[in-house]
Amino acid sequence: MRISYQQTKRDAYLMKSLSTYGMLGSSHIKNHFFGGIARTTVLRRLRLLESKGLIKRVMGLESQELLWMLTTKGGREMRVTIPKTHWSKNMLEHDYLLVDLRLNLEVSGIAHSWMPEHLIRSEIFRKHGAKDIHERIVPDGLIGIQVNGKNESVALELELNLKNQTRIKKTLHRYISKGGFYALWYVAPKLSILSSVWKQWQICGGLKSKVKFYGSLLQEIVESPPKARLLGTKPVLTLGESWIMKAVPLGAHGVSRQKVKTTNQNNLITDSNQTPILTSPP
Q1: Alpha helices of 52-83 — where are they, by DSSP H?
Q2: Does residue 82 sit within a domain?
Q3: Which candidate, 199, 211, 184, places its Cα nearest to that of 278?
Q4: Does 106 share its domain with 199?
Q5: Do residues 162 and 196 make contact, with C-beta atoms less than 8 angstroms apart?
Q6: pTM for the full model?
């Protein structure tokens, strides 16, 4: 039996959003695209889009939640690009949480622009080819902010564990030696992870770097982004009262004309007022 299908505005918006985010979980789609609609109805619609070859499911999360991504056919129909066609099973949890983090920051109004890792990597390939790609800085996300009237960029790294300390050291060395960012912002599920990365940052010579270092707990951002602490500010500020709240689009996405209140630089860590980043209990 052939299932009839008529595309709705919601379908189009969802598929264009899948192009923007790369993938979305069923819960993301229900909460942000089908507010107030039963989960069974949402899944039925997703399966219909899947049956028409417009989207496809990605499986492998520990929670068993289904993930959805745009197909080549869906991209052609929406006239959008498909940013990523393959998701590593080893990185699936990380990438899902990264999308969840991004949505929470955007919905709360904290992040006004976001360039994900796969687009950053694509831009590097476009400009420089594959040469020395492994030695270049490719953060999990790049966020635009404004400090004292000047557009800056914050590199975000989501660290779920400390199994690969060598990789973390190499990453920190690249930020310190090559710079080019206003700040490096680590987000992790545990305070111990942030403390360990902070210690490595000091060992690597980060206190002498022009790049500032900040840390936040993932759960605090998920529960309430404006109330999440930005560890590394002095005294410790929340995201809602710090510079990250003054986010503006990156140059690639245009320049915001909104009036932006600048940050009190005395609240930011410098070489002269440096203090342990994680002195507060979780």
Answers
A1: 72-78
A2: yes
A3: 199
A4: yes
A5: yes
A6: 0.81
